[in-house]
Write the C-alpha cells for this entry.
Amino acid sequence: MATANLSRFRLLKKRRHFYQSRCQVLRSQLGFNQVESTRPKPCIGCCHYHGKFYGYNRNQRTQLICGFHPNGWLSNNSCPDWEKSIDSKQLNTET
C-alpha cells in the first residue's frame, strides 16, 4: 500500500511541475515573468523578516512581517531592529 501511495505522490508531483512550468512559460510570453515582492521596503535583506500568512480562510488571513513589528515597519526611514540576513552576509563574503 505504501508503494502505491508513493508512486501516486510522484505522479502528482510530476504533473504539478509540468503545470507550473507551462504557467511560467505563458507568464514570460505575456511579460509577467517579474513577480513583485510582497516584502516591505524597510524589510529587504533583514534576517528578522518572516512574511508568512496565518488564518484558515482568505478573508481572515493576516501576514506576520517580523517578530519585532508584526505589521511591518510603518515609517519611511530604516527600521531600528534591521539586521543583515545570513544569505546577504554569505553573498558579501563570497565575492
Observations:
- Residues 89-95 have pLDDT under 50 and may be disordered.
- Helices lie at 2-30, 86-94.
